[in-house]
Predict the structure of 5-hydroxytryptamine receptor 3A-like.
Amino acid sequence: MNDGANCSYRALYKYLNLVKDNDNSKVRPFHSSSATEVYVDMLLYAILEVNEKKQQFVSYIWVTLRWFDDDIKWDREYFCDIWKIYPPSDVLWTPDLTIEEMIEDNKVSMSPYVTLDFYGYVTLQRNMVVVSSCSMEVYKFPFDVQNCKLSFKSIAHSYENLEITNLADSQWTMEWSLKRMTQSEWLFVNLNISEEVVGERNGEQNKLIYTITMKRRSALYIANFLLPIMFFLGLDLASFGISDSGGEKLGFKVTVLLAVTVMQLILNDILPASSDRIPLIAIYCIGVFGLMMLSLVETILMMYLLGKDAAAEENREDEEQRRNLKKRTSADESPAEQLSVAKEGDSCKPTAESIALENISDELRDVEKTLTRVLNGRKKGNKAGCWTRVAEKVNIVFIITYVIAVIVFLIVLFLQWTKDDE
């Protein structure tokens, strides 16, 4: 160690002129008019929120900035082997980097210090809660994969004055983030780093772009949304076993249809209104709703056709009752006339014969009515009405077509959900 070494930190600060409002805090470090190279490293600690409705991505990151300043290095042997100090950040020049997609100020307090080593390398570290805009594609919701970008660039400096370069390898950054990240609804898949030069008002500027790829956990959406709608569709298929003669089937189908409508309202609160394509889950809900509505219309048609046959049957019964009434009236008059003729021809016969004859005629009429009722009942059981036969045929054709349409619709939708994007 040098005998004339100074072991005081204050002496080192004074030697480097690290006081407020010094020249080092105002002027960008440069050499031979070359650009100042700033190394950036971003580590992703957590994915706090992904809001599809607002198209916002909220992340918690740790950013490290490092650059070289030849004017503030020292000989550590002269200062008792002091190789690193932590001066306030306001006594040194710091790069004016910002995140292009950030739409809200950082809510985490910044560290007031930087790290300075004897080589002249300055390191600035800060943790940030970044609320950024992110264009999200929800076509395959809830099996979607999102890519959100965080682009670092200078506010004022052009590419000729400040060059932004990645500090660490992207693979190392991704592995480090995976080890320390708590996975919630979104699974962190990949982190890609790229550089881009764009033309701005201040000339060409250098951008360092971190692309975060994440995949949604879809199990909860399957259990709480997709499966209930599938169950409603299954109930609608099972309702074909309910008789069309009463109103129970119609009420049941309307109730199931209203349940699907409630699920659509819930979906409307999740998905953004500005999507380029209609999401597959919306097509799923609309398709199931349309199939169930067709089933409801078919039920109404069946009830209408059966009602026409029931009305015709009622008309026939009324007509039969009127005919029977006429027959009964004529039959009641015939014995009386016979009795009067008999009385006129032979007034000496006893009255008991006339009474017996009237009783016999009544019994014969009762037997005739019973036989007529039995024969009519057999005819009705063996042969249905015309509209009833039409309704039965239409119902069979519709059930077969309906089942085929449901199977084809679900298969096509599943293939679209599982198809890889080109």
Remarks:
- Helices lie at 9-16, 170-180, 219-238, 248-268, 280-345, 352-382, 386-418.
- DSSP finds seven helices and ten strands in the chain.
- The two ends are 65 Å apart (CA to CA).
